Amino acid sequence: MKVKVIVTPKNGVLDPQGKAIQQTLNGMGFSSVNEVRQGKYFDIEINEKDEAKAKARVEDMCKKLLANLIIEDYQII
Amino acid sequence: MKSSVIIFPGSNCDRDMDVALKKFGFKNQMVWHNDPNLPKSDLIILPGGFSYGDYLRCGSIAAKSKIIKSVVEFANSGGLVVGVCNGFQILIETGLLPGALLRNKYLEFICKNVFVKINNSENKYFKNIKKNILKLHIAHNEGNYFCSSDELKFIEDNNQIAVNYCNKNGDISEENNPNGSINNIAGILNKSKNILGMMPHPERMIDSYLSGEDGSIFFENLIGNLK
Question: I need a surface site. Which of A16, B112, B119, B189 has the fewest CB within 10 A?
Answer without folding.
Answer: B112
